[in-house]
Each structure stands twice: as C-alpha cells, then as structure tokens.
Write a structure and sequence with these properties.
Blueprint lengths: L1 H39 L7 E6 L2 E2 L3 E3 L6 E2 L1 H13 L2 E6 L5 H6 L5 E2 L7 H4 L3 E2 L4 E10 L14 E5 L3 H13 L3 E5 L2 H9 L5 E5 H10 L3 E13 L2 E2 L4 H16 L2 H10 L3
Parallel strand pairs: 1-5, 1-6, 9-10, 9-11
Antiparallel strand pairs: 2-3, 3-4, 6-13, 7-13, 8-11, 8-12
Helix pairs in contact: 2-8
The chain binds arginine (ARG).
The site of arginine (ARG) has 13 residues, from loops.
C-alpha cells in the first residue's frame, strides 16, 4: 500500500516536472524566435526602413511634378523589398555627395540612389547584389558642334558632385583637353546650366540622361561612354541581416516577375 502511494506520488511529480519543462522550453524558444526576428533586421526606427536618396535623378528617384510625391524605379523597388521584409519604407532625401557618410552616421538604414557599386565605396559600405546596369553618356544642346568626346577640347563639362560621372570626366580631362569640370549638387542643376548655355556638355549616367533627353528635345546624347556600371543598394557594414534580407527579396522579385514589372513600368518603352 505504501509502495503504491509512493509510486503514484513519484509519477505525478515527474509528470508535473515534465510538463513544466516543456512549457518553459516552448516559451523560451518562442521568445528566441521573436527576438531573432526583431533583432535580425534592426532599423533606426523600429518597423521602418529609412532610405537615403538624392531624389533628383529620374527615372530612378524624383519628385512627381503633379503629386509632389517621390517616385521612380528605385522607389518602387525598395518599397516592394520593404513589403517583403516587413518594414515600412520612408524615403529620406539627401545630398548624393555625402550620402555614404550620412549612412554610416546612421541617418538612414540603407541608400537606394542609383548608386554604382565601386571598389572604393565597398571599403566604406556593403552593397546588395547588383540590380541594374548602366553606362555614362555625353549630352549636349541639340545641334551643338560637339559630336563626340573628341570635341570636348576647350569646353566646360558639367557633372554631379561625388558621382562616377564626375570621376569619368576627371579621368578624360587631360586627354581630351577639357577646359573645366563644373560639379553640381544635383544632376538636374547641371542640365539647367546646359540649357542656359553656361556649360557645353554633361557627363551623367546614361539611363537618366536618356530619360531627360526624351522629355526635352533641347538636349541630345552624342555618345555613350561604356563604363559597365552596376547599381546596388548600400547598407552599413554592420547590417548583415538587412543585407541578406534585401538580397533575398531582390532574388525572389526577379524570380516571380515583380522586378520585370517594375522595370517595364519605368523603362518599358525605351
Ligand atoms: N551612378 C552614379 C554614381 O553612383 C550616379 C548616381 C547619382 N544618384 C542620384 N540619385 N543622384 O555615382
């Protein structure tokens, strides 16, 4: 009789212990999973992906004349990525020239700004997988005597400060006898000065200049300068989880046709 009671007592006791153990364990792993999910993609404002961009670069990022909204290929791309990684996207306009420093100073979580992946930039930030190809271009006033890079002798060339276009202009300056390189805070200002006759040509990313030329026949492209550039999304070097999530979303979007849809929306009839 005593033995039986002892047996039951022990049985109940061990059952209680097992249950307590299980409950505790599942609580713990639930918490772990939650923590993982939250800390995996840490952003400066929880739940929000703050995106730095110089928004004077159509059709990648620019202000819609009618709605004043910031729109473009990059904007659609990052909004879709945000949706897929569970973050609300907020575009934070910024100067391109200092955008990498601002990213590293935690002003935003990433930069989506038609930014070319370069070895020099890779020392300061990490880039996503490339999402589009680009070259440089030489644009002039339609009918200008400048027909190619060879005609830039003694001319003033406009570029955007801090860009690969500026680097290209500096690289060819001596060889082609360019008189002066004028650097602007944004690309649209360079085109304004080209229109006003203050400069003779603009060296800038081909797809952007092609878009501007199409909208305004005052300008024409006289040369495509092959540079084989690729744009990437930049993140701080401490944002490995964010980078992984961005790359996964990008790859998924390429697979399921979403990337193509966005591409066609902005470049479809070119
Ligand atoms: N692709 C060029 C670069 O990385 C120009 C980018 C300029 N982007 C912009 N949103 N203004 O230097």
């Amino acid at each position: 009789m005593h033995k039986k009671r002892l047996f039951y007592t022990l049985l109940i006791l061990s059952l209680v212990l097992i249950f307590a153990g299980c409950a505790g364990k599942s609580e713990k792993s639930k918490e772990e999973a939650k923590e993982n999910k939250e800390s995996k993609i840490e952003t400066i404002t929880p739940g929000v992906l703050t995106v730095g961009s110089d928004v004077a670069f159509p059709p990648f990022e620019f202000e819609d004349e009618k709605t004043q909204e910031i729109v473009g290929f990059d904007v659609d791309l990052i909004k879709e990525i945000g949706k897929r990684i569970g973050l609300q996207v907020k575009i934070q306009p910024a100067a391109f020239d200092t955008i990498i420093q601002a990213l590293n100073a935690k002003k935003f979580d990433c930069v989506v700004s038609a930014m070319t992946i370069t070895d020099e930039r890779k020392q300061q930030v990490d880039f996503s997988d490339p999402y589009i190809d680009s070259n440089q271009s030489l644009a002039v006033k339609s009918g200008s005597p400048i027909k190619s890079i060879e005609d830039l002798k003694g001319r003033i060339v406009g570029v955007q400060r801090g860009t690969t276009g500026e680097l290209k202009a500096q690289e060819i300056k001596e060889k082609y006898g360019i008189k002066e390189i004028k650097s602007y805070d944004d690309t649209l200002m360079a085109f304004e000065d080209l229109k006003a006759g203050r400069i003779d040509a603009v060296i800038n990313d081909y797809p952007v200049t092609a878009y501007l030329v199409k909208k305004d026949p005052f300008f024409e492209i006289v040369a495509e300068i092959p540079t084989g550039e690729k744009y990437g999304i930049a993140v701080r070097k401490d944002s490995k989880a964010l980078l992984e999530a961005i790359n996964k979303a990008l790859a998924d979007m390429k697979k399921d046709g979403t990337y193509e849809k966005i591409y066609k929306k902005w470049f479809g009839n070119q």
